[in-house]
Amino acid sequence: MSNSNQPECHFSLVLISLLSCTTNQARLTVSPSSSQFFIRDFVSLSCEEDDSSAGWTLRRNTSKQQRTQCGDGWGEAAGSSCNISYIYTSDSGVYWCESREGPISNMVNLTVTGGSVILQSPVLPVMEGDDVTLLCKTKTTPSNLPAAFYKDGSLIRKQPTGHMTIQHVSRSDEGLYKCDISGHGESPSSWITVTVIRLVCHLVVFCPYFISTLLSVSLYQHRANGNDPTVILATAANAEQRMCEDYDDIAAVTSEHQF
Ligand SMILES: *[C@@H]1O[C@H](CO)[C@@H](O)[C@H](O)[C@H]1NC(C)=O
Ligand SMILES: *[C@@H]1O[C@H](CO)[C@@H](O)[C@H](O)[C@H]1NC(C)=O
Ligand SMILES: *[C@@H]1O[C@H](CO)[C@@H](O)[C@H](O)[C@H]1NC(C)=O
């Protein structure tokens, strides 16, 4: 192999490492996209993944029961999705997707209120620098009413339109939010989580050993028997994927907004 090929080989391996460490991961999504609901609302949850063969199940913890599966006394399961036709206050809790092999997805807190005001905030962690819109809604009034927004118990803004945008969120915007509509009442509180992602850090933190090993192994094999480089790359990627699965719990925290 000529020396000029080596940088490309390194680059491919790094890219494959990055992809294999981050794509084998389910993502729980909620539709409509909200972490607060009124009783009797319809909610659809689904476990999404690039490689759909893994067989994910949706589970939840509520104040009454732990680790129950969709279809097991709550929800209607079909494939990797789960619908709750009439959500109730007892459906409030933490939801996540779990595969038989162990890895779990992001977790989502759902809060169901018997009251008449909800705060619609992002269900998934938001990425630092993004704009975030919060909407304060009543059960009975279709148009938006003036609302007051609170963070960690303190009033932050009064908005005549009932919605508020936080521009370029940073870690300091993380916290417990709620809203209030005069004459209608107060919403429950929900957490807004802000994540900071740096691709290079992610790679360095989770896979440094595998990458250096694979680089030396593949370059050694390459020199030793002049194998087809694509075969080596594919083998390396498989090995890497197996090793990286052990890190899925940690990677789950940071993989949401990878690309
Ligand atoms: C759900 O409940 C189980 C059993 O109490 C506990 O071990 C687990 O950590 C809980 N999971 C979440 C996401 O809260
Ligand atoms: C859940 O609802 C969605 C949208 O209404 C529908 O496409 C899907 O088939 C439903 N799934 C189940 C399990 O009923
Ligand atoms: C869910 O809610 C609990 C308590 O309110 C909070 O500690 C936790 O961070 C929340 N988890 C997520 C994923 O928002």
List the helices and strands and how they pair.
Elements (H helix, E strand, L loop, with lengths): L5 H17 L4 E5 L4 E3 L4 E6 L7 E7 L5 E2 L6 E3 L2 E4 L8 E7 L8 E6 L3 E4 L5 E2 L4 E7 L8 E5 L2 E6 L3 E4 L8 E7 L3 E2 L3 E3 L1 E2 L3 H8 L1 H18 L3 H17 L2 H7 L5
Parallel strand pairs: 2-9, 11-19
Antiparallel strand pairs: 1-3, 3-7, 4-5, 4-8, 6-7, 8-9, 10-12, 12-15, 13-14, 13-16, 16-17, 16-18
Bound molecules: 2-acetamido-2-deoxy-beta-D-glucopyranose (3 copies).
The site of one 2-acetamido-2-deoxy-beta-D-glucopyranose has 6 residues, from strand 8.
How far from one another are the termini? 33 Å
By DSSP (H or I, 4+ residues per run), the number of helices equals 5
In round numbers, the mean pLDDT is 78
CATH class of the largest domain: Mainly Beta
Large-scale geometry: flat
Percentage of residues in DSSP E strands: 25-35%
> Could you say how many structural domains there are in total?
2
Strand order of the largest sheet: 2-9-8-4-5
Q: Please name the CATH topology of the largest domain.
A: Immunoglobulin-like
Q: If you compute it from the alpha carbons, what radius of gyration comes out, rounded to the nearest whole angstrom?
A: 23 Å
